[in-house]
Amino acid sequence: MGMNAVYRGPEDCPSVIPVFPLPGALLLPRGQMPLNIFEPRYLAMVDEALKGDRVIGMVRFRIEEELPPIDPFRRCRVAFEPFGSDFTARAGENEVDRAGVVKALRDFVEAVHVKVDWRGIEEAPNEALVNALCMMSPFGVREKQALLEAPNLKTRAEVLIALTEIELARGGAGSDSTLQ
User: Fold this and answer.
1) Are 83 and 51 a contacting pair, CB within 8 Å?
2) How many CB atoms lie within 10 A of CB 143?
């Protein structure tokens, strides 16, 4: 397999993959997350992935079954079909309530007094904006799970707006007071 495998849809993905459990992390389509992998079992997992199909799961798929351990790391049989639209870059961007997302961000920024690159916000495509804000949000595990389980970009944006409005109505700013 080449250096950068391209998965155009669920049918291109392997059905059994190693799983890297990372509590509290949220990685969405076309998002980036630097990982510090140092435990021997996860180093073995990365080595194995690099030798094969180059896929490691952090759960943006449906777990069908966890397989009995044959390696020091976990493996699962998974299904990617429920998230088929994630394979298409910028799918559903035109359906996103961008004004609502930006308003929620402005309200949040005002409440917690942080600086934001508004020019970068204005230039970001809807998918990049929504997914980056979801990944950086200071929400707790349940809220991040709701963002992860959103079936499409439009719904993810709606959940982000709702969660932000709820948290601001409570007078808080998530489980942590800063963007991650």
Assistant:
1) no
2) 22
Of 33, 160, 149, whose CA–CA distance to 108 is shortest?
A: 160
Predicted pLDDT of residue 124: 97
Rounded to two decimals, the pTM is 0.79
Q: Given this model, what pLDDT does residue 180 score?
A: 45
Q: What is the pLDDT of residues 103-146, one digit of tens each?
A: 999 999 999 999 999 999 999 999 999 999 999 999 999 999 99
Q: Are 56 and 20 in contact (CB under 8 A)?
A: yes
Of 117, 122, 119, the residue nearest 102 (C-alpha): 122
Residue 104 to residue 31: CA distance in whole angstroms: 21
pLDDT category, 13, cuts 50, 70, 90?
A: very high
Dihedral of alpha carbons 4, 32, 93, 12, sign = positive
Alpha helices in the chain (DSSP H): 40-51, 98-112, 118-123, 126-136, 141-149, 153-170
- The β-bridge partners of 57 are 19
Sequence-distant (6+) residues with CB within 8 A of 155 are none
Residue 128 is given by DSSP the state: H
